[in-house]
């Protein structure tokens, strides 16, 4: 049963609009930290030099957003109110949404912009697949090859409202993409709005979540490594962060 990692890393060396900070405590500093913590919290003296090599355990402290690296957006991310009730946070979502049969659609020929229902219907027909309720649909836009660079945030295709509605009408509740966003790039969206004045072009994929409950997996990777368009299960359980609008995930394809 081959396992294929579809996750992008959290890497402080990557270019990010909101940079990642990772500070590592060495094993030697870990020993000193242990001694200080035991004294402060428990009133116990402990000499770190009695440890092998005067070392204890390393630790890493990270500063990052919940939307860094591969992550799942919860309905609460899309806005404070929803027509279907109180939007759920990432810790409130059903686990069975995140371990389901999946299909990947190749959108690498689309370019920068938006993809609608007509294109998605054609791509589903190409691979001969009809999504079943709770299936996960993945979009391979080709953006993963740009990860770590500024272009990762500007050069990809997203969905318009019709594309989201098409998939949700099948009963899909999780849509994934290798791009920074399920919507088109921010630069593209704002440019289109300035040209047209149409508010409907403003993040339609995300704002659809205010009317229909669903999740997105963004910033996937390695979708080209999947041996076929369907016939695999995606496991992408989000980290259980209380009251958060998103949570990091290790997305793994389990190939039947």
Automatic annotation (TrEMBL):
The protein depicted here goes by the name Cyclase family protein
What are the GO BP annotations of this UniProt entry? L-tryptophan catabolic process to kynurenine
One of this protein's Pfam families, by short name? Answer: Cyclase
Gene3D superfamilies found in the cross-reference section: Putative cyclase (3.50.30.50)
A molecular-function term among this protein's GO annotations: arylformamidase activity
Taxonomic source organism: Kutzneria albida DSM 43870
């Amino acid at each position: 049963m081959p396992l294929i990692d579809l996750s992008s890393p959290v890497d402080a060396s990557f270019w990010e609009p909101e940079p990642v900070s990772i500070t590592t405590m060495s094993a030697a500093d870990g020993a000193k930290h242990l001694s200080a913590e035991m004294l402060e919290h428990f009133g116990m003296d402990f000499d770190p030099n009695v440890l092998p090599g005067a070392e204890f355990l390393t630790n890493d402290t990270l500063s990052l957003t919940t939307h860094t690296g591969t992550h799942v957006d919860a309905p609460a991310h899309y806005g404070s109110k929803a027509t279907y009730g109180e939007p759920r946070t990432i810790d409130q979502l059903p686990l069975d949404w995140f371990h389901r049969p999946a299909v990947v659609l190749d959108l690498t020929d689309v370019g920068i912009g938006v993809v609608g229902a007509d294109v998605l219907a054609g791509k589903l027909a190409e691979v001969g697949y009809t999504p079943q309720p709770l299936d996960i649909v993945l979009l391979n836009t080709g953006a993963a090859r740009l990860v770590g660079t500024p272009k990762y945030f500007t050069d990809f295709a997203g969905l318009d409202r019709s594309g989201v509605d098409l998939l949700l009408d099948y009963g899909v509740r999780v849509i994934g993409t290798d791009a920074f966003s399920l919507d088109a790039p921010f630069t593209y969206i704002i440019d289109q709005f300035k040209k047209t004045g149409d508010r409907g072009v403003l993040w339609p994929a995300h704002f659809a979540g205010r009317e229909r409950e669903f999740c997105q997996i963004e910033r996937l990777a390695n979708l080209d490594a999947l041996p076929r368009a369907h016939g695999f299960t995606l496991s992408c359980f989000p980290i259980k962060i209380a009251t958060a609008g998103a949570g990091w995930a290790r997305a793994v394809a389990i190939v039947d």
